[in-house]
Amino acid sequence: MTTDTTEQTDAGGGIAADRTVSDPDYDDAFDAVVVGAGLAGSAAALTMASASLDVLVVERGTSPGAKNVFGGVLYTPTIRELVDVEDAPLERYVGEKRFGVLTEDDETAVSIQPGAWRDDPHNDSYTVLRGDFDEWFAEQAVEAGATLVTETTVTGLLRDDDGTVVGVETDRPDGTLRAPMVVLAEGGNSLVSEGADLKERPERGDVAVAVKEVLEFPDADDAIEQRFRLTGDGGAAYHYFGDGAVGDAFGGAFIYTNDDTLSVGLAYRIDDAVTTQPNPAETLDHFKSHPAVAPLVRGGRTVEYAAKTIPEGGAEAVPDLVHDGAVVVGDAAGLVLNNGVHLEGTNMAVESGYYAGLAVADAVASGRTKAHALADYPRSLESSFVVKNLEHYEWLLNAVEDDRDLLFSELPRAVADAGAEYFRVDHAPKHDHAANAKSRLFETVGGWRGAAKLAWRYRKVIS
Amino acid sequence: MSNTPSTPDVENASLEDRLYTVKYEDPGESHLDVQVVGFCVERCTTDDCVDVCPADVWRKDEDGEPVIAYENCLECGSCRFACPYNNVVWEYPENGSGVTYQYG
């Protein structure tokens, strides 16, 4: 395989001695090829390179992160153990989480800002921009000895006679790359994994479409600090549900504060996007114009518009993680948690890349690459928070789907009405307002009995 | 207290302006296509690809045949999942072409 100026190497790791960096031949030169330099791919590459494997990371973008989009809050418990996050391009730590339920013109919200979040390591939650962060994280893998090739697209997998994966095909001239192990970290739009029958295309009810704008405020330097009441490196993560966020759809919207920009966006199931719901760009316009949202985003200039799909099928939708000669990690493996309160994927991507990297390193060290030799990866993941969380909230996906009108539309309306009634100032005694507020809520949830049933059904959201 | 509107106007950028913010290199040919030409006209009545697309890539002409503005594509892949007939052909744009997100 020949490339031009797109490879980065450290100490010539993995390149055969008779090759130069300007004319490398990567075929059969590496122990493992990683498809995609996102969080999962770079975590796997870093882990394998640290275990003295010769690792090649193949990234289709012009640089790591160029094709990557998220909300975004990065959760760093494992990243912190792998690299020095003090040097990482973090935007702000999350000092406040706010959950707002929106009807067409009301908001009812809960905010938490524990004092401990202001202290290092800030609950391991930071806003980041992936263009910066992913490039930095991939550099850490390169410094650990991995080789990175960009602007190179993996187009398929190579298999030997018994079906074992033995490398990749790329879009480079002479782009065949044989290697004992392939790590598929290609993201949620996983064309290579699906094309090679390592997983099926997810159902559209299990996938969300997401759009996001990054906004800057050229006319007001302190707009973000003022509007979100921020000091220092502190930041905020605002989440929104209900009709005012994503209409009738199953999903939610968000605003995250970066250093000097806002990330504003939303995500909802593709099943709903193809119905009467306006298209994602229009839904985003509508959300930004909500009376409770507009004051936060007004005057913002769009510096980037982005879209992605999110695998949200939960534990049941996770494909086989190991195959003969290959492992699947991150979004490609459907490792995203969305239970309404917790929206996590970055930590699961890193965790899966890390465990996959360890398992591949062990397998390669003993000269074995079959699926059973890689079983430590799924085993470790199953005993980690990744699969435990997905399984714990599996029931929620079905329950919320059954109750969606109640949860996303009727209840938000009732809570807003009840709140307005409870605090109404007029000539009637407060006792009457409280009674009216209570009956407004009860008529929606079905009285004490209905309220108790709902509370019981959703008890595990916070437990 | 004044009588100015309580909700400030938010000037949402047009989709065209939004797409203009994304750095893009044209691969020269479309990375998107339909599997079976004519199928969309004959069988599809829902235009799910059009409804889901955040970037106005998928449009239908008067006859119901898809017109693919691939250079608008943000590479999210939603059309591929949305099509109930699996009639969307989706390939990664090659050699670093397509979108380059600076923020992401």
TrEMBL record, chain A:
Stated name of the protein: FAD-dependent oxidoreductase
Top-level taxonomic group: Archaea
Family annotation (InterPro entries): ETF-QO/FixC_UQ-bd, FAD-bd, FAD/NAD-bd_sf, FixC-like, FixC-like_C
Residue numbers spanned by region Disordered: 1-20
Residues covered by the ETF-QO/FixC ubiquinone-binding domain: 235-310
Keywords assigned: FAD, Flavoprotein, Oxidoreductase
A Pfam family annotated for this UniProt entry: FAD_binding_3
Organismal lineage: Archaea, Methanobacteriati, Methanobacteriota, Stenosarchaea group, Halobacteria
Organism: Halobacterium bonnevillei
Entry cofactors: FAD
Every FAD-binding domain range: 31-215
Molecular function via GO: FAD binding; oxidoreductase activity
FixC-like C-terminal domain residues: 405-461
TrEMBL record, chain B:
PROSITE patterns linked: 4FE4S_FER_1 (PS00198), 4FE4S_FER_2 (PS51379)
Record key words, sorted: Electron transport, Iron, Iron-sulfur, Metal-binding, Transport
Residue span, 4Fe-4S ferredoxin-type domain: 64-93
Name of protein: 4Fe-4S ferredoxin
Organism, scientific name: Halobacterium bonnevillei
Cited InterPro entries: 4Fe4S_Fe-S-bd, 4Fe4S_Fe_S_CS, Fd_FixX
Pfam families reported in the protein's UniProt record: Fer4_9
A molecular function GO annotation: iron-sulfur cluster binding
Keyword Cell cycle in annotation: no
